[in-house]
Write a structure and sequence with these properties.
heterodimer, A: 404 residues, alpha/beta, 13 helices, 13 strands, B: 122 residues, alpha+beta, 5 helices, 3 strands, 23% strand, binds pyridoxal-5'-phosphate
């Protein structure tokens, strides 16, 4: 078997060797508790944490004091939504978010609904973007929070964060953005974008799993959060628990490297991604792009190879790691809710494959992957009754299918 | 994740293709929105299936189920073929519970093809 090819960087990334190297001493000789204020071991750990906080802040244009460390973006999203809801509920109980958000936001929002909050889930257009006019019209007297992601994890579509920030500010509503997929890949600046809360995860940007951060604005306005994890009062009382020093050092190093290399990396990865896409559209017909043509993460392309079911395609790709929005790859038997929200028909959602490229993707790997995908799609279409029909010019929608 | 038999049928599907003619019955089951469509055809001589072909849009288990179905029905009488059940297929392919519907679809496809042949040749 040939060497496996990883094209699933949106799911997680390997730890950059430079990040790992920075982390290692903090498992052994520098193992101290950053909260131990009275000895050298503690000071060393605290120093490392301070530096990491600085590095995270620098990448997003924030102040170090505005960074709250968490166990990852899921926790950051939970803390942002639950923390704001609990703290500001006297001012109102309405929250605005969007149907294509990550489950960490959606499920938290649904939970808040059971606690007496009202949530508006904005729809998206066929490229996955919200309508700003509709957003503004949705804001009410009792709206306390808008939560909209910077970049979507399935299709890579970017929301107009800066414009959303301006609308939020105009109406005095707090703005949280789940920027898990965006940070380290495209420029994110909390000042310029007018974001009040922003979720970050290390493992999507070549850092370790199980660590992340929530940016919490301290000035204009000073955002207050009700803690969701209670204890020793770490992280200015917003998130208790002994800091995971090695993980935080990893997150910091990942942010520093991203800051230095992001611009060049984005250009390289985008070129590779477009090369892959072009190879597909040149060799195959009926290839649909899911998401926005331009306003999209540089390393991500989500395609539907019509008439070939996603899981069967992945099965043929053996050594190539990608992901699919097909129902068969999930436990639920429902195709991706994100693709559904775009109005991509279920028949195409079942055929979707997400390719996400990253720092260690090479052109050679990409070409090998493209070849394998093209060969597999071609082979599976030869046994697809739908491809035959399409080739004969039969409109599949005109057929009365027996749903099961 | 997949049984060896599913992988084998997926990699080397038996009887992919199309049949034409008066003595052919065709069954198409499933729906594109549900992620699987099976087309199964039988060629019948004197009440016996002498050839069978399929085309399937669906996951590996769906492809394997229909491939196996064509293999099994060849040489059988129409009535014998119609007696093959989804559990026979699921058992042979070792399908996990979430993939049982693939075998159900294959059973339906056989029945639909037999019915179609009978209706055309009454
Ligand atoms: C947009 C988005 N938000 C949140 C998460 C959850 O992040 P974590 O794995 O750090 O909890 C992910 C990753 O799956 C994501 O892509």
């Amino acid at each position: 078997m040939s060497k496996p090819i990883y094209l699933d960087y949106a799911a997680t990334t390997p730890v950059d060797p430079r990040v790992l190297e920075a982390m290692l001493p903090y498992f052994t000789e520098r193992f101290g508790n950053a909260a131990s204020r009275n000895h050298l071991f503690g000071w060393k750990a605290e120093e490392a944490v301070d530096q990491a906080r600085q590095e995270v802040a620098a990448l997003i244009g924030a102040q170090a004091k505005e960074i709250v460390f968490t166990s990852g973006a899921t926790e950051s999203d939970n803390l942002a939504l639950l923390g704001v809801a609990e703290m500001y509920q006297e001012q109102g109980k309405h929250i605005i978010t969007c149907v294509t958000e990550h489950k960490a936001v959606l499920d938290t929002a649904h939970y808040l609904e059971t606690k007496g909050f009202e949530v508006t889930f904005l729809p998206v257009d066929k490229a996955g973007r919200i309508d700003l006019t509709q957003l503004e019209a949705t804001i009410r007297e009792d709206t306390i929070l808008i939560s909209l992601m910077a970049a979507n994890n399935e299709i890579g579509t970017l929301h107009p964060i800066k414009e959303i920030g301006a609308i939020a500010k105009k109406h005095g509503v707090l703005f949280h953005s789940d920027a898990t997929q965006a940070v380290g890949k495209i420029p994110v600046d909390v000042q310029e974008m007018g974001v009040d809360l922003l979720s970050i995860s290390a493992h999507k940007m070549y850092g370790p799993k199980g660590v992340g951060a929530l940016y919490v604005r301290r000035r204009k306005p000073r955002v207050r959060l009700a803690p969701q994890i209670h204890g020793g009062g770490h992280e200015r009382g917003m998130r208790s628990g002994t800091l995971a020093v090695p993980q935080l050092v990893g997150l910091g190093a990942a942010c520093r490297i991203a800051g230095e290399e992001m611009a060049a990396e984005a250009i390289r990865v985008r070129a590779l991604r477009d090369r892959l896409h072009k190879k597909f559209t040149t060799a195959l017909d009926f290839v649909h792009l899911n998401g926005h043509e331009e306003l999209r993460l540089p390393g991500l392309v989500n395609l539907s190879f019509a008439f070939v079911e996603g899981e069967s395609l992945m099965m043929g790709l053996e050594n190539i790691a990608v992901s699919s929005g097909s129902a068969c790859t999930s436990a639920s038997l429902e195709p991706s809710y994100v693709l559904r929200a775009l109005g991509v028909g279920d028949e195409l959602a079942h055929c979707s494959i997400r390719f996400s490229l990253g720092r260690f993707t090479t052109e050679e790997e990409l070409d090998r992957a493209a070849e394998k995908v093209i060969a597999t799609v071609t082979r599976l279409r030869e046994m697809s009754p739908l491809y035959d029909m399409a080739k004969e010019g039969i409109d599949l929608k005109s057929i009365q299918w027996a749903a099961h | 994740m997949y049984s060896d038999k599913v992988i084998d049928h997926y990699n080397a599907p038996r009887n992919v293709g199309k049949l034409d003619g008066e003595d052919v019955g065709t069954g198409i089951v499933g729906a594109p929105e549900c992620g699987d469509v099976m087309k199964l055809q039988v060629k019948v001589e004197e009440g016996r299936i002498v050839d069978a072909k399929f085309k399937t849009f669906g996951c590996g288990s769906a492809i394997a189920s229909s491939s196996l179905a064509t293999e099994w029905i060849k040489g059988k009488t129409l009535d014998e073929a119609a007696q093959i059940t989804n559990s026979d297929i699921a058992e042979e392919l070792n399908l996990p519970p979430v993939k049982i519907h693939c075998s159900v679809l294959a059973e339906d496809a056989i029945k639909a093809a037999v019915k179609d042949y009978k209706e055309r040749n009454q």
